[in-house]
Specification:
single chain, alpha+beta, binds 3,4-dihydroxyphenylalanine
Length: about 375
């Protein structure tokens, strides 16, 4: 016991002396961590006789509590000091006159969405929207992914847990719509295809930009990101129309004529046939620049999205007669094409809300994309 008290005194001194949060965490690991000496002491209780344990347990518990409290208190103090230092270094003098120019800026994602709408409007597309909180019928079933379809599992879907069941002994269930459909955050913009066709029938020509959600997070994936869906349904539509439309769009969007697309056979439940859309690019000064044939020297192909001819089952689900109408659809990542066009390399920074990043990459509210003056930003 006296050994433990010596260790305790030393640990408390080290905690008090910790210069920063990292040093403090070292102390936490050495004491309360899985392999720390306090945890080890607690484990010895199991081998003691009941009398020994009755004597030792309160003492060891007291040591544990005292160390835990010391760490908590020190952590709070270190954090407060860090915050105070930051506030001191970032003070704003509110008595200064207001800046001459407005400070806000348009986020690149908003700017690119406006560019998309402008270019596609010129090709006769209307902008459609749908709810971000969807049900599994629109998000999956009507897109030809029934309950057992393996593609459902690949979407890392955020479902809404049913809180009313959580406290009972039953497993936590999923929240449902009144007619029994699972509620979820849409995993793609494709359900807007279904909603638009159900609402207006055919012929139809829409794009649907918006937020989508998947349980995924690293340097190139964020749990929320942006897609744009495209859908054309009419009589006699074929894959050639799809390729021309995408090519025309990308030429206008990247503001260069040398855009070369490659349609690569693929699979999506909601299209048949399905293709992935690649664009040729080269590396210039460590930056990817679209343009040129992907097989040309110094060039390669990069995937931009998925597309294909709308599966006739999808048309049927959406109340459109597949004997009369055909369609093509596509889905592109907006963040991805924004990064390519404006040269950002880390997706996560898009959503940090850091004013310095926004000032650097944001656009003036006066910089409205127009086809006559160029859809891109005027530098
Ligand atoms: N919804 C697909 C996804 O999120 C992308 C996609 C592929 C959309 C093919 C389409 C399409 O409209 O035809 O991965």
């Amino acid at each position: 016991m006296s050994d433990l008290h010596t260790q305790q005194t030393e640990a408390l001194a080290a905690i008090a002396a910790a210069a920063d949060l990292a040093a403090l965490d070292e102390q936490r690991v050495a004491t309360l961590g899985k392999k720390g000496w306090v945890s080890a002491a607690l484990k010895t209780l199991g081998q003691m006789s009941p009398e020994e344990r009755a004597a030792a347990a309160p003492a060891i518990q007291a040591i544990r509590t005292e160390i835990a409290e010391a760490i908590e208190a020190k952590k709070a103090a270190l954090e407060a000091a860090e915050l105070a230092e930051r506030l001191a270094s970032e003070t704003v003098d509110l008595t200064l006159p207001a800046p001459a120019a407005p400070k806000g800026s348009i986020h690149p994602v908003s700017q690119v969405m406006d560019e998309l709408a402008e270019i596609f409007a010129d090709l006769g597309f209307a902008v459609a929207t749908g709810p971000e909180i969807e049900d599994d019928w629109h998000n999956f079933t009507a897109l030809n992914m029934d309950e057992t379809h393996p593609a459902r599992a690949m979407h890392d879907t955020f479902y809404f847990p049913d809180k009313t069941l959580a406290s009972s002994s039953e497993a936590v269930g999923q929240q449902k719509t009144p007619d029994g459909k699972d509620i979820l955050l849409r995993t793609h913009t494709s359900p807007v295809q279904i909603r638009s066709m159900l609402a207006q029938g055919a012929p139809i020509r829409i794009i649907a930009p918006g937020r989508v959600y998947r349980s995924d997070s690293d340097a190139t994936h964020t749990p929320m990101f942006h897609q744009v869906e495209g859908l054309v349904v009419d009589k006699g539509i074929h894959l050639g129309h799809l390729k021309w439309t995408l090519e025309t769009f990308f030429k206008a969007f990247f503001e260069r004529e040398d855009i070369v697309l490659r349609l690569r056979p693929s699979y999506f439940p909601f299209t048949e046939p399905s293709v992935e859309v690649d664009v040729g690019y080269s590396n210039e000064g460590g930056r990817r620049v679209v343009g040129g044939h992907g097989d040309a020297p110094g060039h390669a192909w990069m995937e931009l999205g998925g597309s294909g001819m709308v599966n006739r089952r999808v048309l049927e689900f959406a109340g459109v007669d597949p004997y009369e109408y055909q369609g093509f659809a596509f889905g592109l990542g907006i963040d991805r094409i924004a990064m390519l066009k404006y040269g950002m390399n880390d997706l996560r920074a898009f959503f940090d809300g850091d004013a310095r990043w926004l000032t650097h990459y944001g656009f003036s509210p006066f910089d409205q994309p127009t086809l006559s003056a160029g859809v891109g930003a005027r530098a």
